[in-house]
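user: can you give me the structure for this one chain? tokens are fine.
assistant: on it. calling the predictor now.
[tool input]
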Amino acid sequence: MDNLIYLDSHAHAFSDDFDEDRMEMIQRAKDKGVILLNIMCTSTEEAYRAMEYAETDPAHIRVSCGIFPTDVNDLTPEKKQEFIRVMKDPRCTCVGEIGLDYYWEKDEAMRAKQRELFIEQIHLANELQKPICVHSRDAMQDTFDIMKEHRCHGLMHSFSGSAEMGREFVKLGYYLSLGGPVTFKNARHAREVVSSMDVNYLLSETDSPYMAPEPVRGTRNEPSNIPYIVARMAECRNMEVTELAPVIVNNWQRFLEMR
């Protein structure tokens, strides 16, 4: 078990929260076997720093950058072009996190702008032949409808929908990534998703520094907590961690190959 390799498909490792101990945080993850890391960036400044770091370990580190849905509120043409330059950079593996967030946005006109931006970024990702990482909060049906109409290769980050909806995403070829909430006592839907889904479409993530899993809930989350999440996922499927962890790693490699 000590030789297991783990994946964190979604970690904001270059956010301000880790400025004081970033390299130590990454080393803690490596010590736990979390060597596959997808660094999520919601600003171009983050992305350039993360891409520079990723060049030190290109076999294991990936970088994703996209325009977060609520950022459409103050998106200028100049900011948009800068994001597009980052997405086109060959060091940027994935376009994300993009999608819809209706929790923070109640105005229908602004929600419509989110949908337009989401579709635009999907089309760009397809042109670039890069996968997408999708954020969906209180907007699952609209997210699904858009991803069904505008087909692409991608994953659902921190999937919070029902098992039934999860199966519909998987039918379209999308991967489902689960994080800390799957360990929470009241996370019935997340556990049902993990237990009933095709195991070949499951990924693991932390969404660091947010949503730390049990038993460290309430603390700053970081990639070294992935083993707690994978252990809970394995339990949901009546599998051993030694069985599930390699499957998740294989899923990630297949995802990167856009298959």
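assistant: here you go. The chain is about 40% helix and 15% strand. Strands lie at 6-11, 34-41, 61-65, 94-101, 132-137, 154-156, 175-178, 202-204.
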